[in-house]
Design a protein that fits this description.
The chain is mainly beta. The protein is built from one helix and 28 strands. It folds into three domains: 59 residues, no CATH class; 38 residues, Laminin (Ribbon), CATH 2.10.25.10; 176 residues, Jelly Rolls. It starts with a strand and ends with a strand. 34% of the residues are buried.
């Protein structure tokens, strides 16, 4: 296997020759068996991700590497899973849509202002069938026609239809070597909100493949759990049981290279390290708070598969990089499904 990419500037003034991936050109010409046997999913040079296939100038003996997600048969309702070396998707049958073909398409779309229309099938909990408008951040009402100024975001978990509340933030820069997060929140209750609930997640391109880098915070069995994977194994840090007598809870967490730490309310500080040699967190997706778009826990990386989304209010969220505190603001380019109403 051999791929040739164009010369790349690795220093300010120096330009090196072509980048060879998988072997040397003379080995490929001679038909030698040495060189890489396997798949290359990603290549970065000085923080810039190169398109392994798209930027290659020539190559030899390179075949397609199937993404293993399709082996799980994730597509529902007759959908077909299609994968290539970079990604996977479901080809849905007519009348279905969504990442896993889980939504029934609306015959007519009554929703406004960029809202997402999904159809509730036969009705649930006594409800009638019909379209459901998933309102973008800042809109509410039956058809998402009414503006709303959200000051304290409230998340109501995952409902019986599989929809979830969430906020999507721009990809947070500077997570590679070190970071700190401070989150203050209240819980909707002390039962279902403390079982297995995702608080926030950022993953490598959001593909949900095992082995991908990710950062996740959640509630599990009454404890706060903080997990991250730098590519060579998952670190898991657990707090003591959350004191349900407190109205407001504070989570302070961070990481420097492989070592991470977690402190919840007035509890002791918990620390640990991720296994393996890799020490940089490489995530390219947006930061999701409260849940995810089309919440599908089975497709999250192993260690981040919380079956429910967050139930409660987030009062404050900040990130600290190089001693500079940054208040996180919702992305304006992505919808945040905070209000869902049925017409």
């Amino acid at each position: 296997m051999l791929l040739l990419l164009p010369p790349t500037s690795l220093r300010t003034q120096d330009t090196f020759g072509p980048i060879l991936i998988g072997g040397l050109e003379e080995q490929a010409t001679a038909g030698a068996a040495s060189g890489l046997v396997g798949c290359v999913r990603e290549l970065q040079v000085n923080g810039r991700e190169l398109s392994i296939v798209g930027e290659a100038t020539r190559g030899r003996n390179v075949e397609n590497c199937n993404v293993p997600v399709c082996e799980r048969r994730p597509c529902g309702h007759g959908g077909t899973c299609v994968s290539d070396a970079e990604n996977w998707f479901c080809e849905c049958t007519p009348g279905r849509h969504g990442k896993l073909c889980q939504f029934e398409a609306c015959v007519e779309d009554p929703c406004g202002h960029g809202a997402t229309c999904v159809r509730r099938g036969r009705g649930g909990e006594g409800g009638a069938a019909g379209p459901v408008c998933l309102c973008p951040f800042g809109r509410t009402g039956p058809l998402c026609d009414d503006p709303i100024h959200v000051t304290v975001p409230s998340f109501d978990g995952t409902d019986e239809f599989g929809f979830t509340s969430f906020l999507a933030y721009p990809a947070v820069p500077g997570l590679d070597d070190a970071f700190e997060f401070l989150v203050r929140f209240t819980l909707a209750n002390n039962s279902s909100a403390l079982r297995d609930n995702l608080i926030f997640f950022a993953g490598q391109k959001g593909k949900g493949l095992d082995g991908d880098d990710f950062l996740a915070l959640g509630l599990e069995g009454g404890r706060v759990v903080y997990r991250y994977n730098l590519g060579s194994g998952t670190a898991s840090l657990f707090s003591d049981p959350v004191d349900t007598r407190l109205h407001m809870h504070t989570i302070h967490l961070g990481r420097t290279l492989t070592r991470g730490w977690l402190q919840v309310d007035g509890q002791r500080n918990v620390s640990g390290a991720s296994p393996g040699q890799l020490s940089g967190l490489n995530v390219f997706s947006q930061l999701y708070v409260g849940g995810l778009n089309e919440f599908t826990p089975a497709l999250l990386p192993d260690g981040a598969r919380f079956p429910q989304s967050f139930q409660g209010n987030v009062l404050d969220e900040n990130a600290l990089f190089n001693e500079v505190r940054m208040s996180l603001k919702p992305a304006t380019t992505r919808h945040s499904q905070l209000v869902r109403v049925v017409t």
